[in-house]
Write a structure and sequence with these properties.
Elements: E1 7-11, E2 14-23, E3 26-32, E4 59-63, E5 78-85, H1 101-105, E6 106-116, E7 124-131, E8 143-148, E9 151-157, H2 159-163, E10 170-177, E11 184-192, E12 195-197, E13 199-204, H3 207-218, E14 239-244, E15 254-262, E16 265-272, E17 280-288, E18 294-301, E19 310-313, E20 316-319, E21 324-325, H4 341-344, H5 403-406, H6 432-441, H7 470-473, H8 475-484, E22 496-500, E23 503-512, E24 515-523, E25 533-542, E26 548-551, E27 559-564, E28 570-573, E29 577-578, E30 587-595, E31 601-607, E32 612-617, E33 623-627, E34 640-643, E35 649-655, E36 658-665, E37 668-674, E38 686-689, E39 695-701, E40 704-710, E41 723-729, E42 738-741, E43 747-754, E44 760-768, E45 776-784, E46 790-799, E47 804-811, E48 816-822, E49 827-833
Antiparallel strand pairs: 1-2, 2-3, 4-13, 5-6, 6-11, 6-12, 7-10, 7-13, 8-9, 8-11, 14-15, 15-16, 16-17, 17-18, 19-20, 20-21, 22-23, 23-24, 24-25, 26-27, 27-28, 28-29, 30-31, 31-32, 32-33, 34-35, 35-36, 36-37, 38-39, 39-40, 40-41, 42-43, 43-44, 44-45, 46-47, 47-48, 48-49
Length: 835
């Protein structure tokens, strides 16, 4: 507004005159009143005024309780309280970019409220409150609360306790949206003596950074507090949490700084790397306490002091006194290329890393700080796809080296993150699995005065890589590393299901008295399609990997089940013979059993030497073991054997960063390795000979589900070049694919997805017609994370007796679901397999 009407108001016995005048571009109201007595109750002998004025949206600076002190305008937009001005000398050393000294010499005190209008509804701005106690000199003399738009941002706030002395300036910064009326309502309430404030500064987030910064705050993530040499130390915004060495980016000195924030509530960390004479690096990570979301900020400075002098100027992080912006919006990926930092800083607490015992990134000094929600999600998702939570480690053996002491819901590190995060096979290698591997076998005292260690990072873990590191012997850690290396598909809790003319058969593990027992389930349909499952306990079989099954000689009554026991021996029933009894190489992971095109019954497995072996049943009493020929690359995943046609069979498996195939024809075994079009996730492929004469290998890549089609058979020289394409563009697939020829003669593939921090995960089916090329995605089941977590890999097949598509999958509580197509109901019908 450009004018105001003079009004005379009497409150109690105190009179105040209001009259209008102009200050700069604002039409403000001058205060004509006498200063009251500080320390007295509000309204007792002091002036009580109300002034209203227009404030342009985007910025304002107010000298609370005093006249204009450019660029701060005279006191305005208040209700209640008294004023006082003192000519005390003010120490400005604790404030970065302080207001003029005159601002800290004046105060409004008592119980009062500022109502600042003229902002855009819901727009985020930074509110910076300036304080200086010119009356008291000892802590505990004055405490008060501050509430902004209904949110308490300071509780029992003590200026002197926070800054360390009287007559010393202090600021507190908050980033919040304007209310539904486009206002900031800032209420000060006395706890002891009188609430007070010296200045109020509201600054819009600059356009250059508004998208990313506003998205962060909207997601409940604080922007980093102001930074500078004056803001580090006891009672200041940032705490220096020690020097450390041998960072994951460079082996140089650096500092860790952290700051707690109250609006939005959270924790920010600066990882300031060393100065090498040309370029310095720093990272800033902030995580919200209530939302669990996190923002990543990164930049370079050339040259730089140590520690880096970076600054937050109007919401934009800059370095070297404002020389260059760190980030200019969400389009500017804070971690370009394949760095994958959200995979390194994963799990519940993004600040934890295993680089050394008592590493400063382990912020145990911030007592009890953890997000109140389960897992974090980067605000710039999906640019940096990140898992929404951990694997359920019921799938893994118990830790013998104490990893789960810290990595638990209530532990300082939070539970482990999911190891199946897409993209963790990043070319840059800076990913969670890479960090896990490096932390596992990092030797003690690696050029840093005894600050290094293995995993867990404790002083007793003085290891030599691969020799005596505790984690190298810990079954829990070894299982996680297996997952990182592609053994995830063989993990227990993944059902194996197939069908015969007489019924359906499933092999499922069950947790019994601390061990995983393999159970056989058979559905002879005597009680109907959804009620005929009967379980039998194959109690002598215990396995931490997925079991397999097949029909020997194609006989529907001759069911074979095979599983790897805890020592690496593969057993099969009904013969109860160990498949590997005559082999010098024990197995790791889950086996694959099938009947080859030449009629041989075979079990393939990955040996502990990372080569693929096959056992062939002699028809009488034993399995003859041979190493498949021609292997030139180490196997990094479990093999899948399948009958391609009447002319050939094949075994597909992951090998290093490629895929490998052993193809059996009338001329023997033939080996080949081929590059995938994109980096693959840890899930080894699912091969399938389709009814339309195509031979397809499905695998999960960093961009989703992909297919490799090879139509030539038997083609022992592999001259027929395969073609590859993406079937389902989804970066959040967290299971191996399960492919089958469905009831229509087409092809269906089932996967489990987890949508980057949403509250649910899904069972998704991709389908195409027999001779079609278009894939259709259908969500068949949605699991609410508040009540269950889907784990392992699904099984999918065509139930032969009733010609019905069938999917079986499990959750962390060992609950097994079946989805089966009902022609009469024209939908999938769900039931629970009880055993």
């Amino acid at each position: 507004m450009t004018s105001a009407t003079s009004v005379r108001v009497v409150i109690g016995t105190v009179a105040a005159k209001w009259k209008a005048h102009a200050v700069g571009a604002f039409a403000c109201l001058a205060i004509v009143a006498a200063a009251g007595c500080e320390g007295a109750p509000a309204g007792d002998g002091g002036s009580i005024e109300r002034v209203s004025a227009a404030v342009t949206s985007g910025a304002t600076k107010i000298n609370a309780g005093g006249p204009a002190a450019s660029p701060y305008i005279a006191d305005v937009d208040f209700s209640g309280g008294s004023t006082v001005t003192r000519a005390n000398a003010i120490d400005l050393s604790a404030v970065d970019s302080p207001a003029p000294t005159a601002v800290y010499q004046s105060q409004r005190y008592g119980n009062f409220t500022y109502t600042l209008p003229g902002f855009t509804k819901g727009a985020y701005n930074q509110i910076r409150l300036h304080f200086c106690d010119t009356h008291w000199t000892t802590a505990g003399s004055r405490t008060f609360n501050v509430v902004i738009n209904g949110t308490t941002v300071l509780s029992s706030f003590d200026i002197i306790k926070t800054v360390g002395a009287g007559n010393k300036a202090l600021t507190q910064t908050f980033t919040m949206p304007a209310n539904s009326s486009g206002q900031y309502v800032i209420a000060f309430t006395t706890v002891k003596d009188a609430a007070t404030v010296s200045g109020i500064e509201v600054t819009a987030i600059p356009t250059a950074t508004s998208t990313y910064a506003a998205d962060c705050v909207a997601g409940g993530v604080p922007l980093p507090p102001n930074w500078g040499s004056a803001d580090v130390g006891s009672g200041k915004a940032w705490t220096d949490n020690q020097i450390y060495t041998d960072t994951f980016l460079e082996e140089q000195q650096g500092h860790i700084y952290f700051a707690t924030t109250s609006s939005p509530a959270g924790l920010c960390v600066i990882n300031a790397h060393g100065f090498d004479g040309s370029t310095g690096l720093f990272d800033v990570i902030c995580q919200g306490t209530s939302s669990g979301k996190a923002c990543f900020w990164e930049g370079t400075q050339n040259p730089s002091p140590l520690p880096h002098d970076v600054g937050l100027v109007g919401g934009a992080w800059t370095v070297g006194g404002g020389a260059s912006p760190v980030i200019t919006g969400i389009a500017a990926n804070p971690h370009p290329g394949d760095l994958g930092c959200t995979n390194c800083h994963a799990g519940k607490n993004v600040f934890i890393n295993h680089f050394a015992p008592n590493h400063p990134l382990n912020l145990s000094t911030v007592a009890g700080w953890m997000p109140s929600t389960s897992w974090y999600i980067p605000v710039d998702d999906p640019v940096l796809p990140q898992n929404s939570g951990p694997d359920t480690f019921v799938e893994y053996p118990a830790s013998t080296s104490g990893c789960l002491t810290c990595h638990s819901p209530s532990g300082p590190a939070g539970p482990f993150p999911r190891l199946s995060t897409p993209g963790y096979l990043s070319a840059a290698g800076e990913t969670y699995c890479a960090v896990l591997q490096a932390a596992t076998d990092r030797p003690w005292d690696q050029g840093s005065g005894g600050l290094q260690g293995g995993m867990p990072p404790v002083s007793s873990n003085k290891c030599s890589p691969g020799v005596d590191c505790a984690a190298e012997k810990d079954p829990f850690v070894l299982a996680m590393l297996d997952t990182c290396n592609g053994v995830a598909v063989s993990r227990a809790n993944s059902p194996f299901v197939f069908s015969s003319s007489t019924g359906d058969h499933a092999v499922i593990d069950k947790w019994v008295s601390g061990s995983r027992q393999v159970w056989q389930l058979d559905d002879n349909f005597s009680g109907g399609a959804f009620h005929g499952w009967n379980g039998s306990d194959q109690s002598f079989l215990e396995s931490d990997y997925r079991a397999t099954g097949f029909l020997r000689n194609g006989n529907a009554s001759d069911l074979v089940i095979a599983a790897t026991d805890t020592s690496g021996v593969i057993w099969e029933i009904p013969d109860t013979n160990p498949v590997t009894q005559n082999s010098p190489v024990l197995a790791i992971g889950g086996p694959s059993g099938y009947r080859r095109h030449d009629g041989a019954n075979a079990i393939d497995y990955r040996g502990q030497d990372d080569l693929i072996y096959e056992g062939v049943w002699d028809g009488v009493s034993q399995w003859n073991i041979t190493q498949l020929p021609g292997q030139t690359l180490s196997a990094t995943g479990d093999p899948r054997g399948y009958r391609r046609s009447g002319q050939s069979s094949a075994v597909i498996y992951a090998c290093d960063s490629q895929l490998c195939e052993e193809r059996l024809t009338s001329t023997g075994w033939h080996f080949r390795a081929f590059e995938t079009a994109v980096r693959r996730a840890p899930f080894v492929p699912t091969p399938l000979a389709t009814s339309d004469g195509k031979f397809v290998t499905f695998y999960v890549g960093e961009d989703g589900l992909r297919q490799i089609v090879d139509t030539c058979d038997p083609d022992p020289s592999f001259t027929c070049k395969p073609t590859e394409s993406v079937v389902y563009a989804n970066q959040n697939i967290v299971s191996a694919p399960a492919a089958y020829v469905d009831q229509s003669g087409g092809v269906s593939v089932v996967v489990i997805t987890d949508s980057n921090g949403s509250n649910s995960s899904q069972v998704v089916q991709l389908s195409r017609a027999k001779n079609g090329t278009t894939w259709t995605a259908t969500t068949l089941y949605t699991a609410a994370k508040s009540t269950e977590t889907l784990v392992g890999d699904p099984a999918a097949y065509l139930s032969i007796p009733i010609n019905a598509n069938t999917i079986v999958f499990r959750n962390a509580a060992f609950k097994t679901y079946e989805l089966q197509w009902s022609a009469s109901q024209n939908k999938y019908v769900q039931t629970t397999l009880a055993f």
